[in-house]
Amino acid sequence: MSQQIKRPFSERNLFTKVITNPTGAFSFVLVSLLTLLAIFARFIMPYDPTKTDYSHVSEMPSALHWFGTDDLGRDILSRMMLGTQFTLSGALLCVVIALAVGCTLGLIAGYFGGFWDSIGNWMSNVLQALPGLIVLLAAATVLGTDVYVAMAIYGFLLSPAFFRLTFVTVRGVRNELYVDAARVSGLSDFAIISRHVLGVVRAPIIIQAGIIASISIAIQSGLQFLGFGSGENLSWGTMLMDGFQSIWLQPIRLLYPSVMLALTLVSIVLFAGNLRDETERVGNRVRKSSKKSKEEHVSEVAVEKPVIHAEPKRSGEEILSITGLEIGYLQSNGQYKVVVHDANVSINKGEVVGLVGESGSGKTQTALALLGLLPAGGTILNGSIKFDGIELTKLPSKEFDKLRGRRISYIPQEPMSNLDPSFTVGSQMMEPLRKVMGLDKKAAKARALELLNMVGLPNPEKTFRSYPHEISGGQAQRVLIAKALSCGPDLIIADEPTTALDVTIQAEILDVLRDLQKKTGVAVLLVTHNFGVVADLCDRVAVMQYGRIIESGGIYDIFDNAKHSYTKELLAAILDENGPAREAYVAKKVGA
Amino acid sequence: MLKFTLRRLLTGVLLLLTVCTFAYFMLYLGKDSIAYGILGETATKKDIIHFNQVHGLDKNFFESFFSWVLNAVQGNFGVAYTFPDPPATIIGQRMSVTLILVVVSLAIVAIVSLALGVLGAVRGGWADRFVQFLGLVGFALPNFLIAFALVVQFAVIIKAFNAVGWVPPERDFGEFLKSATLPIAAISISGLASLTQQIRGAVKDTLQNDYVRSLRTSGLSFKRVIFKHVLRNAAGPALSVLGLQFVGMLGGIVIIEQIFAIPGLGSLSVAATAARDIPVVMAVVATMAIMVIFVNFVIDLLSAALNPKVRLS
Q1: Cβ neighbours of A531 (radius 10 Å)
Q2: Percent of chain B with pLDDT over 90
Q3: Nearest C-alpha of chain A: how many angstroms from B74?
Q4: Helices and strands in chain A: count of H runs, count of E runs
Q5: How far is A173 from chain B, CA to nearest CA, in Å?
Q6: For residue A356, what are the β-bridge partners?
Q7: Is residue B1 helix, strand or coil?
Q8: Which domains does chain B have, with CATH numbers?
Q9: Residue A152 contacts residue A93 (beta carbons within 8 Å)
Q10: CA-to-CA distance for A102 and A155, rounded, in angstroms?
Q11: Residue A222 and residue B255: Cβ atoms within 8 Å?
C-alpha cells in the first residue's frame, strides 16, 4: 500500500491494461453500451413505451415486437430502453451524492484532525445499525415514495464508504514527508490537498463508485419492485414488478429485466474488480522488478572456486547428510529460478554446524527444505537429504509430520511473530506435547513448566499463563527454544535465533542454547549471518553465498585459515557487529 | 472481560437511542401531513390536532419522544393508526417468522462460507477460481433476482416448493419446509458471497504468518494448524463481516418476504410505510435496530473470546 501511495501509477496505463484483458474488455463494452442506450433511448426506441395496443396483448417475441408485448399491448423492448435511462440516472444521482458528501467530509476529517474521525466513525456506526431498505421505507413515510428522493437519501447512507476511503488515504498522505515539504515551501492547505491528495485517491474512488453504482441499481430496482414511484417512472424495477405479477402467465416478461439487471450489475462489479486487481498488480510489479535486478547482479559476479577444508576429526555417527541439494522456485514463465546450488552439508550426532551467509544466500531455504516446509512454489530439484537413514526429499507429508517436532525441530528467527497470538504460551507448549508425545493434560503441563524453567525463564508459571503479546522478545525466544526441545529431537534447526534480539539478550540466549545443547547432546544446524555466533557455538561451518556453499570446514580451519574472499569479508565484519564483548570471546576461542 | 462486555452493552444502548431519536424526529416533522393523509380529504385542522393528541404527538418533540421511549421500554408502542392490533402485538406475531428466516440463513451462510472460503484459500487453483466466481456473482446479483430464478425453476417449472405463502413449523413441518426452503435459499445464496470472500482473504493472510510454519515444525498436521490456529486468527475479520451480513439480510428480507408473501417484519415494514402508520413504523425500526445491535454485541463478545488483544481495546 505504501508503495502505491508514494508513487501514484499512471492511470491511463492502468485503464489500457484493464480493457486489454478479456473480462475487463467485456465489462467495459457492456457498461459503455448501456450508457449510450440510456442517453439515446428516446431516439432509438421503436415504439412509444406507454402506448397501449389491445390488438397485440401479451404477445411472444416477433419480428414486429422483438421482445413481445405486455398485458396492455405495450412494446417491451421500448420499455426496456427507456427503463435503462431512468435506472442509470437514479444510480448516477446516488453515486454523485455519496461522492460529494463522503469525499468532502473525508478530506476535511483526514486533513484537519482527530475529532472528525470520531464523528465520522459514530455516524457510520449509526448508519450501519439499520438496513438501508428499512431507512428508505421509514423515510418514505414522511417524504413520499419518489424514487429520486429515495436514491438521494441512499447516496447519503452510502457516503461512509467514500468517507472511510478518503479519510484513510488522506491520513496516509498527510504524514508523508513530501506534504510537509510542500507546506514548508509555502503552499496553502488547499493547494496541497488538490495537488497531492486527490491524485492518490482517484483510482480507489473509481472502484468504490462502481461498486456503489451497482448496489444502488439493485436497491432502486428493489424499491420499485415494492411499489415505489409512479407509473411515469419506468425502470427495470417497475418491469420486474409487472413481470412478477405475470409469472404464471408469461414468465418470459420477468426474464428481460432480470437478465438486463444481472448483466449490468455483473459487468460493473467485474470492471471495478479488474481495476482493483490491476492496481494491486502494479504494486507487485515494482517489488518483482527489484528482485530481478538482484538476480542479474548475481550473474555478474565472477564465481570464485569453493574451498573445502580437510575434515577435522569428528566423533559420533552421521545424523544428517545433504548431498548435491538444489532448490528452485517456479517462475511465472514456467522456468525454475534456482536459489540453492549443489549444497553439501553433513552433521553428526551431538555436533553443532553453522550455515553462514548474508540474507538471500539460500541458507534459510536449505533449512526449510530439511523441514519439508518450503514456501509455495519451492521445490527440491536435485540431490538428497538423508536424516538418520531416511530420505527426506521423497518423504510423503504424513510421514514428515511424524518426524517434525519429535525428531527434527526448529527455532525461528523472529520470536514474536512465531507464537500464535490467540493462544497462551502454556497452551502452545502443551499442544505438541499432547499431540506428538501423547502425554495427558497433567503430564503435559508439568513437562511444559519444567521446560520453561530449563530455558531460564524466571517465573515459568506466569509465562505459562501469558499471551504472546504479554511477554518480551527475549522471553518469547526462550519459549520457542523450550518448544523446540520439548519432544526430545535429534536435530534442531536454529534459523538466526538471536538476530531479532538486543545485544545483551543475544548473549543470554546463546548461553541457554549452548548449555542445553551440551546437556541434551542434540545436533544443531545453526543458520546465521554472524560469525560471532558461529564462534560461540559451532564445531564446523559451511559458508554460503549466492545459493552456493563457497567454503566449509572445521571451526578452527575457517577462523585461522579462511581462503575464500567472501569468508574473509564476513570474518572481518564480526568486530563491527557485536562490539568488544564478542571480540574478546572470539579471540579466546580462536586462539585456543 | 466484564468491563469490555459492559462497555459494549452501553455502546449498543446508545446506538439504539440514536437510531430511534433520528427516526422519531423525522416522523415527528411529518406528523401533520401524515395525519392529514390518514384522516382523508375532509379532515379539518381540529381533527388533525385531536388525532395527534390521541397519539401523543401534540407535545413538543422532546416530551413526546421521551414518553414514547418510556412506553417502548415497557413494550408498549402505542396504538396503530391503521392496523387493528397494537404495534407490539403485531411485532410479536411477525417476529418469529423473520427470526426463523434470518437465523437459519445466517447459520447456513456461516457454515458454507467457512467451508468454501477455507477451500479457496488452501487449495488454490480451480477451487479458488470457483470460489472467486461465486463471490462475484453472489455479490453482484441482488437477492430478489436469485429469488425469481428459484421461484421460476423450483415452483413454477418443477413445482417442488411453494411459490408463495408461509406455514409455521409447529403447524405442519413438511409444509413449512415447502414454504421456507426457497426464501431461505435466496437469502443465503446472496449472503454467501462477501463472507466467503472475507474468509478466503483472512485465511490467506493468516497463512502468511510465521507462526503457521513454526506450528508445523513442532509436528502438528496441516489440518490441525488450519482448523485450530489459522481459523481462530482469521475469525476476527470474518466475524465483523458476518455482522454486516446480518444487516444486509434484514434489508434483503423485506423484498424476499414480499416476493414470497411471507407475514414477517419485512412485509410489515412495507405495509406500515404504505399506510404511513407512524407507531408501527417506529416499532419496526426499533425492533430491527435491537436485532442488529444484539447480533453485533454477540459478535463482539465472540471476537473478544477468540482474540485476547480485542479485549484490551
Answers
A1: 28
A2: 40
A3: 22
A4: 22, 11
A5: 25
A6: A528, A543
A7: coil
A8: 2-72 (no CATH), 91-275 (1.10.3720.10)
A9: yes
A10: 9
A11: yes
Q: Would you state the pLDDT for residue A10? A: 56
pLDDT at A291 over 50: no
Enter the C-alpha cell of residue B120.
Answer: 479457496
Binned at pLDDT 50, 70 and 90, residue A296 comes out as very low
Output phi, psi for A524, to 5 deg.
Answer: -130, 135
Q: What is the mean pLDDT of chain B?
A: 89
Please report the pLDDT score of residue A300 as a whole number: 42
pLDDT band of residue A193 (cuts 50, 70, 90) is low
Residue A58 binned pLDDT confidence (cut-offs 50, 70, 90): confident
pLDDT of residue A199: 67
d(CA A167, CA A204): 12
Nearest CB to B233 within list A402, A404, A420: A420
What pLDDT score was predicted for residue A592? 36
Of A130, A273, A431, the CB nearest to B220: A431
For residue A54, the SS3 value is coil
DSSP string, A104-142: HHHHHHHHH-HHHHHHHHHHHHHHHTS-HHHHHHHHHHH
pLDDT above 70 covers a percentage of chain A that reads 87
Q: Strand A336-348 relative to strand A318-330: parallel, antiparallel, unpaired?
A: antiparallel
More confident position, B56 or B298 = B298
Which residues of chain B lie closer than 8 angstroms to A131, CB-CB? 247-248, 250-252, 254, 288, 292
For residue A303, the model assigns a pLDDT of 60
> Which letter, b or e, does each residue of B157-177 get, where b requires 16 or more Cβ atoms within 10 Å of its Cβ?
eeeebbbeebbeeeeeeeebe
3-state secondary structure string across A437-493:
CCCCHHHHHHHHHHHHHHCCCCCHHHHHHCCHHHCCHHHHHHHHHHHHHCCCCCEEE
CB within 8 Å of B234: residues ≥ 6 apart: B199, B202, B203, B205, B206
Model ipTM value: 0.89
For the segment A515-542, the average pLDDT, to the nearest whole number, is 88
Nearest CA in chain B to A422: B307
Extract the C-alpha cell encoding A89.
Answer: 440516472
Contacts of B247 in chain A (CB under 8 A): 128-131
User: How far is residue A61's CA from residue B86's CA, in Å, rounded to a whole number?
Assistant: 50
Please check whether residue B216 is in contact with residue B225, taking contact to mean a CB–CB distance below 8 angstroms. yes
What residues in B contact A132, CB-CB < 8 Å?
251
Q: Determine, for residues B214 and A418 on separate chains, whether the beta-carbon distance falls below 8 Å.
A: yes
| Helix, coil or strand: residue B98 | helix
Q: Is the pLDDT of residue A289 over 50?
A: no
- pLDDT bucket at A290, cuts 50 / 70 / 90: very low
- Tell me the C-alpha distance between A101 and A79, whole Å: 33
d(CA A414, CA A435): 25
What does each C-alpha distance from A262 to A21, A340, B312 come to in angstroms? Answer: 21, 51, 45
Nearest to A262 by CA among A21, A527, A30, A2: A30
pLDDT band at A466 (very low <50, low <70, confident <90, very high): very high
Q: Radius of gyration of chain B from Cα atoms? A: 23
Distance CA B189, CA B168 (A): 23
Name the nearest CA neighbour of A356 among A560, A521, A491, A532: A532
Decide if B222 and A226 are in contact by the 8 Å CB cutoff. Answer: no
Contact A138 B23 (CB under 8 A): yes
Beta-bridge partners for A343 = A325
Q: How far is CA B115 from CA A504, B146, B199, B299, in A?
A: 47, 22, 9, 19
Q: Does residue A66 have a pLDDT over 90?
A: no
Question: pTM for the complete prediction?
Answer: 0.81
pLDDT tier for residue B312 given thresholds of 50, 70 and 90: low
- Give mean pLDDT, residues A385-403: 88
Taking the C-alpha atoms of residue A555 and residue A532, their distance in angstroms, rounded to an integer, is 12
Q: Please tell me if residue B25 touches chain A, with a CB cutoff of 8 Å.
A: no
